[in-house]
Design goal:
about 140 residues, alpha+beta, four-stranded antiparallel sheet, about 35% strand, globular
Length: about 140
Amino acid sequence: MAFKAAKAEVWAVGIDDRAGGVADKLESLAKAGASFEMVLARRTPETPGKGMLFATPVKGAKVIRAAKEAGMGIPSTVFSVRVEGADRPGLGSKIARALGDAGVSFRGISGIAIGRKFVSYIACDSAADQAKAIAALKKLK
């Protein structure tokens, strides 16, 4: 089975690095009906006391409005790729090698397997790297 690889529209917002900082942003989106496939929160060591929250997909008029009201937006410097397919041993290594061989530079990668399937998100450094990543990953078997 070939992998599905496509551009992903990941939304982001700065958060306070404290207990409840993530919940403060997600609650209004949940009330609007948001159902995310991926949520990632991390500290920003370069800005003590702050962090970043990333989520996707942000779909539907009510959810988009709630996301914007929470200060979320689509970063102009993050070019994300969503990859999914059948899980198997060594898959992370295979994906990393395909990206490296294609000359793709990326700032982050996440992946999770549930049952026999996996989903991975790759944050690339540029639109060119995003396109190269998608092309390389679609060739994987």
